[in-house]
Every structure is written in structure tokens, then in C-alpha cells.
Amino acid sequence: MGFIRAIKSFLVALSAGLFSVDNGAEQGYIRVLLALPPPRSSSLELLRRPVACALKNLSEGEPSSMRKLISSLAIASLAFTMTGCSEKAKNPVGFGLVEDDNHWQTSQVVIEDVLADSCLTLSTGAGDGYHLLIGSWEGQETRSLLLFEELPDTLLWPLIEAKLILTSYSQANEDSLIITAHSLQSGWQEEDVTWEHPWIAAGGDFESEAIAEGSYALISADGLELNFTGAGVQLVQGWLQGQTNNGLILRAADLQENNLKYFYTTNTLVYSPRLELTFSISDTSDTTVSAEASQDAFIVQLAASQDEDLLCVSDGTVRRSWIHFDVSTVPESVFVNKASLALSVSEFSAPLNSMTIAAYQVTDLETLAFSPGAAGSANLFSGKELLEINLTGLVQSWIKGIQNAGLILKVPTEYNDLSRALFFTSLADSLQRPRLTILYTTSPSQLARSATGDEIP
Questions:
Q1: Structural domain ending residue among the three candidates 276, 300, 324
Q2: Do the domain assignments include residue 333?
Q3: Can you say whether the dihedral through the CA atoms of 400, 401, 407, 413 is positive or negative?
Q4: Separation CA 290–CA 236 (nearest Å)
Q5: 379 and 258 belong to one structural domain
Q6: What is the distance between the terminal CA atoms of the chain, rounded to a whole angstrom?
Q7: Does some domain include residue 452?
């Protein structure tokens, strides 16, 4: 180690012009180099003799010795680099500055015992999402709500035609779906509406007679068009005149298993649901005015209760899971190379065939509040039996003393889909339990100091 460090220092000094052939300080420095013990690396030992000879000739004033020394040191530097790369597998530091010794030890621990793990059911409201859902998926029916509060001031013109336009986003399959619109009898707010609230009847209080109807198979360039009936035109005319306006509910006329359609919401701005209203302004002239929805949401029928022995993450019907590992067995002074959470999949279902699951650091053990940014995430798709999420940064902070209150597992953007994933808990067989695998290295600061000679805070 001393031989390598001395050569490096000498090269730096030489390039800076600090030494000359006649410099007495250089002569002493060369004698120190020549007196150093052989390096432990066998590859470097082979290069020590030509370097030493060049240094000796330089100390005796041989004119060509400087060129020989520089050439020898260049070869030594190249060989040193190659030696470090070839022995990288033996040295977790990843470079040959640190010899293969007992200072750097890499260990792995697999934590299966958890302090707590449970499934949390939150709500079925969906006013914050970017999609409106209509149809059904695995027994869950979905309906969409629209409210138009900013209508044009056109009291002087009679309304002769009304049309609702939705821009399509995606669909679970290509089967056609008949969609009907109904006037709502109760008021609602997108931030707290659910299948049950605020309705007298679950699923929404609405008129049984449809005021508009359309098929998803008839998609124009703008999306799905629902043409209002005469009763529907009269309803909108009443809104323009100040009558009670609770908006519309859209539903599938005939539920078909796993026939789910997606449309954009007001959160996307450009593709907001809108009414196109045609007014008669004279006997021979009409004009059409657009009005975008001011509020929208989709509501979903609560799915059947899940197995209590499973962790759950779902969208639409929002479920999250809390899992809390005890990492106290890992020494505080280690450097975490990698930490990975592994969850064995029990069930998975997603209309669009995949879902993203993210892990968030719990910041309050009593309320289970969590940080806004995800500590890690991974995609789950059909056929995948194991979900793995990289949590290296978060686990390192736990090891350093940041409060460990566990993780919340959830979909990053909830209220957008009906995807669902169930995972085995700590009560399952050992091969299916949640696992936190931590690969760590002992005393990295001590290694860095031995390699550079500098103090590391």
C-alpha cells in the first residue's frame, strides 16, 4: 500500500515540476521509494524492479533515467489499474486502492419477522382521478358523475339540441357498451362522493328514465357522443333558467362481465367532458356553444371483503397496506449496499393488465401518516408471482437512526382504475412471507480512511 501511494505522490509532484535531477529533496525522496517494502500484489511486485532501477539511475544523475522512470511509472500505473479491476470481485470497494483484507466485509440479512402488517380500507370516492370509469370489472360496477355549473348565459335563445362528449382513454376489452345518462336528484361534491354517500339509494339517486344514450362502439374523432332526448334538452334548458342542477350520472345500460370503459376527466384540461349546446338565434341561423364540466368523479361498488390474512393494494376501491419490519439486528455503522422488499403475490387483477405499487415511509406510528414521496416502486403484471421494491435509501436512513414506523404500500395515483393486488402476510408459509433483504458492508468509513488517509465525517 505504501509503495503504491508513494508512486502516486511522486507522479503528481513530478508533473507539477517540483523535482529536478539536481534537487536534493528528490534524492531523499527516491531513497525512500527504494527502501519501501515490496507491494503485496503479485502483479505490482513484477514491476517494482524496473521502477526501482530507474529511480536509482536517476539518483546517480544518468541523463536518460528521467525518461525511463516516467515510462516505468506509466506502465506501473496501467498495471495497477488492471490489477484493481481484475480483483474487484474480491474487494467490494470496486477499485484496487484497497487491498483484499478483513477491513471490508459484506454481509446479508433476510428479515421475515415483522412487527405489524395489515390491510387498510379507505374509501371508494374517486373525484381526484384522471379517469372516469363506466361498466364493470370482476363484479364491481362503476358509474360516472358530471356537473356543469358554468353554463353560457343564453336565456334569449331557445335550446334546440344538446350533446354530451367524452374523450376515450382506454378500455378493458373491445366489446361495445351501451351507456345511458340520467339526471341526478341529489347534490354531491367530487371530493367526498362514494357509492353510498350522499345518496338515499346506494349507487346514486337518479331518474330512472334516461335522457341520453350512446354506444361506446360509435366513437367519433372527439370520443363518445351521447345525444340528449327531448326530455334531456328540457332539463338543460331548465339549468340555463336557474332551476336545480345536480348534474348527470352515466351508467352501463346492460352490465357485462369485465366490460369497463375509461374516459378523461376535468383534471386533464384539454380532454374535459363537455356539453355542446345548439341554440336557435333566428329562423334561419343556429349557433353551438360548449360548456365543460366543473366537477366529475366515478363511484364504484365496494368489492366483497378480502381475506384478513392477506395484504392488499387496490385502486378505485382504495386499499393500502401497512408493513413494519424490525431492522434493529443490523449494526448502525454499516453501509447499506442494497435493500429490497419482496412480496409474494396471492391474487392479481387489473383491467389494463398492470399496476404500479409504491412504498412510502410512515412518519407517524399512531395515525400512519406517510411521506408524500415514494421510497421505491415496482410494476406488477399478470403472471408475476413476486413483487420486489428497492428500498435501499430508506433502509439506510433507518439504520442511521431515523424513526422506523414501517411502510405504506399503495398505488401512486389512486382513483384511476380498478386494479387490485393481494399479497401473503407474515402468517403465511416461510417461502411466501414478506421479506426484507439487506446487503450491507461493515465499517466503510474505516476503509475509506485507510485508502485515502483522510478523515471522513
A1: 300
A2: yes
A3: negative
A4: 13
A5: no
A6: 23
A7: no
| pLDDT tens track, the chain, 457 positions | 454 555 555 444 444 443 434 444 444 444 444 444 444 444 444 445 555 555 555 555 555 555 555 555 555 554 544 444 444 444 444 444 444 445 678 899 999 989 999 998 776 556 667 889 999 888 889 999 999 999 987 767 899 999 999 998 887 677 788 999 999 999 999 988 889 889 999 999 999 999 999 887 644 445 788 999 999 999 999 999 899 999 999 999 988 788 888 899 998 878 899 999 999 988 888 999 999 999 999 998 876 655 668 999 998 888 999 999 999 999 888 899 999 999 999 999 999 889 999 999 999 999 999 999 999 999 999 899 999 999 999 999 999 999 999 999 999 988 888 899 999 999 999 899 999 999 999 865 544 544 555 544 4
C-beta separation of 291 from 131 below 8 A = no
Pair (357, 434) in one structural domain: yes
Range of the domain at 60: 2-91
Q: If you search the block for the grid coordinates 534524492, which residue do you land on? A: 27
Q: How many domains does the chain have?
A: 3
Q: What share of the chain is helix, strand, coil (3-state, %, to 5)?
A: 25, 35, 45
Query: Which positions ≥6 away from 78 have C-beta within 8 Å?
Result: none
99 domain residue, yes or no: no
Number of H helices, E strands in the chain: 7, 24
Domain boundary residue, one of 243, 268, 300: 300
- Let me know whether 310 and 287 are in one domain: no
Do residues 30 and 179 share a domain? no
Query: CA–CA separation, 419 vs 312, rounded Å?
Result: 11
Task: Please say whether the beta carbons of 265 and 114 come within 8 A.
Answer: no
> Do 332 and 373 belong together in one domain?
yes
Answer yes or no: do 279 and 361 share one domain: no
Q: Are 269 and 393 in a shared domain?
A: no
On the question of a cis peptide bond just before residue 152, with omega within 30 degrees of 0, the verdict is no
The rounded distance, in Å, linking the Cα atoms of 391 and 373 is 13
- Do 403 and 316 touch, CB atoms closer than 8 A? no
The CATH number of residue 433's host domain is 2.60.120
How many whole angstroms separate alpha carbon 139 and alpha carbon 305? 12
User: Do residues 379 and 416 share a domain?
Assistant: yes
